[in-house]
Amino acid sequence: METRKVLLSEDEMPRQWYNILADIKMNPPLGPDGNPVGPEALAPVFPMNLIEQEVSTDRWIDIPEEVLSVYTIWRPSPLVRACSLERALETPAKIYYKNESLSPPGSHKPNTAVPQAYYNKAFGIERITTETGAGQWGSALAFACSQFGIECKIFMVRISYDQKPYRKSMMQAWGGKCIASPSTETKAGRDILEKYPDTPGSLGISISEAIEAAVSDESGKTRYSLGSVLNHVMLHQTIIGLEAKKQFKKIGEYPDIIIGCAGGGSNFSGMAFPFVYDKINGKEIEIYPVEPVACPTMTRAPFVYDYGDTAAYTPLLPMYSLGHSFVPPPVHAGGLRYHGMAPTISQLITEGILEPKAVTQLAAFEAGVTVTRTEGIIPAPETNHALAIVIEEANKAKETGEEKVIFFNMSGHGLIDLVSYDKYFSGDLRNYDLSDEELIEAEKVFENYPKPQLLKSR
Amino acid sequence: METRKVLLSEDEMPRQWYNILADIKMNPPLGPDGNPVGPEALAPVFPMNLIEQEVSTDRWIDIPEEVLSVYTIWRPSPLVRACSLERALETPAKIYYKNESLSPPGSHKPNTAVPQAYYNKAFGIERITTETGAGQWGSALAFACSQFGIECKIFMVRISYDQKPYRKSMMQAWGGKCIASPSTETKAGRDILEKYPDTPGSLGISISEAIEAAVSDESGKTRYSLGSVLNHVMLHQTIIGLEAKKQFKKIGEYPDIIIGCAGGGSNFSGMAFPFVYDKINGKEIEIYPVEPVACPTMTRAPFVYDYGDTAAYTPLLPMYSLGHSFVPPPVHAGGLRYHGMAPTISQLITEGILEPKAVTQLAAFEAGVTVTRTEGIIPAPETNHALAIVIEEANKAKETGEEKVIFFNMSGHGLIDLVSYDKYFSGDLRNYDLSDEELIEAEKVFENYPKPQLLKSR
Hints:
about 450 residues, Rossmann fold, 15 strands, about 15% strand
């Protein structure tokens, strides 16, 4: 019998998250005046205990008991040897993955939704607002809020709200309130609806509505929550990589190549940062964040200061950006359609520690189907992007005969995204390419902003 | 930190299934002439190695290595302490469940789909046909066939095919071919379509088509597969209860009450039969199979000989039956809408070893939402029926102050059935009650068939 899974008991689950801010230098976020933004400026939006995590440079941060207790609903997640995939590819490479699709909402997102709900509750907050595009984040936050008895209101991009009714149903099952955005509940929403009554909505609009709904609650008991990009989100996700390190140690292995898809960057960071720590300290590892060719933030955009949202409500963040008003083509990986990239990941790319790759939509789905019919799991469209590079690297190893250890993150399952698989099989999916002119036009938005410094952490 | 899960390593997975036919007396299946049917009569429908399992009275049957290897994709499944549910109910009862929702298709069905695909492959079969109603079984068989490189053709009841497109997509993702039934591919299908071009289809029609498609393939390389009712299906599912026994032993517990939903009976048997063995040998346990009030096979129908399918293609089986032409009301638990019940379960009910219960649709969903918002998992509508009795028993324990150990099976998740939750929340779900007259009318179909004997196993 083949052994596939390396398990950890609940007792072996890590008790601290790893904070990469202890080990890299970062450009500070800036206000509209070009000066660094202090923590207090964020107080109307986030609870202070999360803001403290956002700016902390402590290397290790304790995971609260209450968060660990909820984590045990699905954690520790197994480290899986993809032996069926290896066999199908006839590769000498050993392929391992963390299976983050086993959480109730089906992705890695609850790793940060749960502590965010906990810290809000601990700070006395009674209601959290957020936005969601494809719905993975909104459903994860609804799940997390149900665990701590907090209300959850989710502004969902209207076109997704209409096209993905199951996501809305999931949020409702956990007691969350999901609203099509733009809505009439906020000034931002009403303004847009007045101008464009038939707008399909956008993530930018939804963020504006969610922030407005939070800061305009006069009781002071409402805050906003974000599922990616920010430092504290990356911090919470490191539970993935920290578990994986323990699991690799159990079997006496260590990855040569680490691969994850990256939209805002949360699942990638969570898996990779604990290994980045080793790379910073001299270990030889190749680490690849993977994005769609249709939204080439890391592979074709510059490292700049830009806003995290379309409405320019956030501070200016130092990151790779296609421009905050860029609207990516409609690829079926909603989680990867983001104009920017987490500042921490961006910093590591500037230093050459991470080497980004880009994959076309059709190559991603081809890889996803190969994995479905070998490993048995139907991966999320986002995850498929990582899989295309995994298979590419496994094929390289076959050519060279090297027994490379490849490690990737199965960031989520695709059961709620099966429509995109249908389209792939019926030939209705296509690739999108972007001209240099399109990108230059989109990037004009930040040409007069301050420029980040090129820092060297080591 | 709360400990929730009792894990087994892959090495600890049971190496044999438990066959209850070693421990109970059964009436034989009969042919249309009223005489017992021999194994050879089934040879055109099933491969001989599975027929041998169907009639075996060996207590323990080895699980092939190849099946164990595929089981490790999701097995062993965790035994979970439902501590959040216990707390919400303020019960002194300890509630445990096997989480069978973690398989790639999201239910317990692969426990038998995988060995069935394996044995067909070992017998030289290249193509398997089956029917599916709600789609859990069809998707599990497509998954299993993809693991062994066998073609899979699924006749899906037309109304479900139209209403549940995600299920069809799942089968396709695993390479299965899903066809709306009745179809023009079989004589049975064409005959029905000629008479009733707009028919929504039925499980009975789909079974007829699937059997015909198997036996009419002149190459002899096609067989039919059934996902419930038969002895070998119950056998394969016992991996659930056998794992659970090991897990309870690890924590020094043993269940006082065992609860599972039962349509054809496969998830219930799988969980319960290894414990039934103990009960037969003197252990005091209450064991409750739970069905919908709208399809009261065990609680209101007689123990008779009847056909397993509407078209009367199967042998006459000794079981509780509402009549093989009975069409249950459209409750949102497709897996529980079956007119009969597995002969093994039926036999154990006649002997008083199992005590069936019935639950209304609304009570089932109320319980499902309670579990969703405590344990975090959104259960399948079928599973919700078991949960209603779990909560009832936990509340009884609260009244009496007894620390009962309650064990149930989380037979599947409800992510593909979220429409039914939407209807529950919007008030569009209702209960169905059946009059005595309706049942008497339906049961006329078997009044002239032979009658089974009342046997006593102990």
